[in-house]
Write a structure and sequence with these properties.
The protein is an alpha/beta fold and 443 residues long. It is built from 14 helices and 14 strands. Bound molecules: 4'-deoxy-4'-aminopyridoxal-5'-phosphate.
């Protein structure tokens, strides 16, 4: 009898079970179907990515070619590129897909050395070390940097790889309210008396960990304020730039460049190659002493197979394009494009009445759904119209703060974005997630 023709009103939400799989089983649509068994609502398999305007062939219950608003392909390098791809193919022929050896055995090629130089130079640090996986970079480095007697102060919304690395380190872990410098200061003040020299306080070492752009919030880190507090209390700073390096800043050098922070003021810079550079792996950049120490002691450097040579070549080539070393202005155009695209898409979504999280210039824009039962509805209706959107929910977000997370790319054209906005607007009306009055379109 309810006005629930599409079947999207949830009739059962069991909150007693906080494991997502079980939670999904307890959320049913009004026909009593568990939403986890709604095959038409989720991506099945991506059959191929394409380089024409970021369209992806995604297999759902019906095979469809979708506009991809889900991948972290910020600069559009995650598909065939006229500069990168031929070089990657050459490196494949020269070195093969795997070194079959760790960095300290036979796994360091010329490409690995070149990559570390390029990365250090790009992020503005004296040295860098690279790993085959971004996740492992955080989870393996933190236990090497920190141990018993150390204090890690971590933003409450830091990525799981940081949480795991911090827990595994044996250090004491404290969390400060997300992106709230005043609370960070409160936590630090609780732990040490202000102004004491490093040697006269209970902790051997204090490290504060933040992200450049928060991947579930689309928000920029309040880095200048956080650095000032770290300096005052003599704590080290650790900045994860997974979502910001290459994606923001006039020359793509991340939040430091965007917010006017000198990289010298960030002690440890971490980032991944899986987003803006269209490859895989992660890096730590810092002082020469720090990097040498990590190279001697980090098990993920000593015992894991080194990053794949074609992946390394992809990163080097992408950085060359960003820096204009390919002899074109494509890099600068990509950077201008992602900024324009992001700001256009965000302001249009807000104008339509959606609640959109995040900051100006950020390519990550979560649209709030709140109710987890709206997840399959939103996803399914977008997929029906060939727009692929990633939805995120507990445990990646708090239980009742489910959202759709849009990732904008430099490879989206204005027409792509206009088409996506039309679809999202219609679906927003259907699912009931326009929480603000719409404003008229600017002429
Ligand atoms: N740090 C952050 C902030 C991330 O969002 C991610 C993954 N998206 C990682 C680290 C792990 O990186 P990767 O996916 O490259 O392993």
């Amino acid at each position: 009898s309810s006005n629930n023709l599409q079947g999207y009103a949830p009739i059962c939400l069991g909150l007693e079970d906080f494991y997502i799989r079980r939670l999904y089983l307890r959320i049913q649509d009004c026909f009593g179907r568990p939403i986890s068994s709604a095959p038409d609502a989720w991506f099945d398999v991506v059959e191929r990515y394409s380089n024409d305007n970021n369209k992806t062939l995604i297999r759902t219950s019906k095979k469809s070619r979708c506009l991809n608003l889900g991948s972290y392909n910020y600069l559009g390098f995650a598909a065939s590129d006229e500069y990168c791809t031929p070089r990657v193919i050459e490196s494949m022929k020269k070195y093969s897909p795997s070194t079959c050896s760790s960095r300290v055995d036979a796994g360091t090629t010329l490409l690995h050395e070149e990559l570390e130089k390029y990365v250090a130079n790009f992020v503005g640090k004296p040295a860098a070390i690279v790993f085959g996986m971004g996740y492992v970079t955080n989870s393996a480095i933190l236990p090497v940097l920190m141990g018993k007697g150390g204090l890690i102060i971590s933003d409450s919304l830091n990525h799981n790889s940081i949480v795991n690395g911090a827990r595994g380190s044996g250090a004491t872990v404290r969390v400060f309210q997300h992106n709230t410098p005043s609370h960070l200061e409160e936590v630090l003040r609780e732990q040490i008396a202000e102004g004491q020299p490093r040697t006269h306080r209970p902790w051997k070492k204090i490290i504060v960990i933040v992200e450049g752009i928060y991947s579930m919030e689309g928000e920029l880190c309040k880095l200048p304020e956080i650095i000032a507090i770290c300096k005052k209390y003599k704590a080290y700073t650790y900045l994860d730039e997974a979502h910001s390096i290459g994606a923001v800043g006039k020359t793509g050098r991340g939040v430091c460049e965007l917010l006017g922070v000198d990289p010298v003021d960030v002690d440890i810079m971490m980032g991944t190659f899986t987003k803006s550079f269209g490859s895989c792996g992660g890096y730590i950049a810092g002082s020469k002493d720090l990097i040498q120490y990590l190279k001697y002691t980090c098990p993920a450097h000593l015992y894991a197979t080194s990053i794949s040579p074609p992946a390394a070549e992809q990163i080097i080539s992408a950085i060359k394009v960003i820096l204009g070393e390919d002899g074109t202005s494509r890099g600068a155009q990509k950077l201008a494009r992602i900024r324009e695209n992001s700001n256009f898409f965000r302001s249009e979504l807000q104008r339509m009445g959606f609640e959109v999280l995040g900051d100006h210039d950020s390519p990550v824009m979560p649209i709030m759904l709140y109710n987890p039962a709206k997840i399959p509805a939103f996803s399914r209706e977008c997929l029906k119209q060939n727009v692929a959107v990633v939805t995120v929910a507990f445990p990646a977000t708090p239980l009742l703060l489910a959202r759709a997370r849009i990732c904008i790319s430099a490879s989206h054209t204005k027409e792509d974005l206009i088409q996506a906005l039309e679809v999202i607007s219609q679906v927003g009306d259907l699912v009931g997630i326009k929480y603000f009055p719409a404003e008229p379109k600017k002429q």
